[in-house]
Amino acid sequence: MVCDRVSWKSFSQMVFFSGYMVGSLIFGILSDIFGRRPIMGISFFIITLASFICALAPQESLGFEKSYSLFILGRFLLACATRGIALTGFVIGVEIVGPTQRLFTGIVIEYFFALGELILLVFAYLFRTWYQLHTALAILSLPFVLFYFLLPESPRWMISKGHYDKAEKVLRHIAKVNQKDFDSIAYQRLITEEKKRQAVSHEKHHGCIILFRSKIMFIITMNISFQWFVQNLVFYGVSQNTGVWLSNPYISFGASAVVEIISYATVHLALRYWGRKAVYCVFVMGFAIFAFLVVPVQMLMIKDSPGQYGLMFIIHVVLKFFASGSYAIIYIYANELFPTQVRNTGIGICSMIARLGAIVGTLSNDVLARVWLHFPIAVFGITSIIAVVFITVCPETLNRPLPQTVDDVERMGLAFPWVRARRLTRIQIDDMDENIALKILPEDNTA
Predict the structure, then answer these.
(1) 65 pLDDT exceeds 70?
(2) DSSP 3-state assignment of 425?
């Protein structure tokens, strides 16, 4: 539509990233207020509508200005809706299961993300014009509008909002499908404890302000937001080099998606045994080490020699592997650190800040490279090391209950490397015991 008008292409991309930022914040807040299910339903409808706007709006009869305006409007709405689906879907998947299945529901989304890339590759190969591609993708989105009628609301969110009867109905349905007995007595004990906690809770309102009112919650929010910024910075910065892996761009894109799947599978296995923080640090430090290897390989080896080409191909693949893995981990880790009360809001803020990282990562390969060819990769490596240092402050969340309120996060505390983390336990109530407030044990208690 804009052919060789580069500025119009760039503006369209900037509008898309702006939609990412707006959608991350708005849908995150709305999801905490009105629930996960309705926001996902609205997002599915918007993404289908926006897809058809992008495909059908540009017409010669409308002229360039109207066609282009409608196109970027569709792109903006599309970006907003994808955040509503991705973030809210991720949160509801984590909230609707217990600790043992939380990792699976968190990582399975990443598998489908990579699978979506492979499907997009097939569509892009079959439909070579942007009009055909957008039309095909718009038609593909139609069945997802019906997902609203299949998705349950998050019982955890309903309990946090006091909708106990509705939450019980969903939990009874889950128990029936899983052929398990629903323990009514345990659920009533859970509700009693929840009511007591809400009665003494200091957080009576929802919104961004809750994330910054307490010291520990403020530190975790700022820290995790910075981690998201760094992961988007390096992920999009490295992903731009995917096209130089091989001479065929379609094969290069497909190989990149396969590397992501392998990375997610590795993360899936590692997180089950070694926790979130340790594995995250290994992946981020691994990325930093291989990022710094780019400089000597490019400067000391014979330019464009087979040896340099082969070594750089290996480095690019490893960088993609580490960047994809750490990106997946921070999604899961952040969900387990933010309380149910403002989980979607917190994730939305992180995603909004992450878009800044994506923009910086995209632009740095052009702008910083003009100063020094290896400046971008050096920045990626340095920021990764800083991220590892900062993440050590956050507590480990492996096999711990999801926090319901900011008070629960306060009880989790911070895990400074030089200070032993406080030991936590909670009242156990069968499979639903995560909803009970955390209790701090005395330091000398070994129970």
Answers:
(1) yes
(2) strand
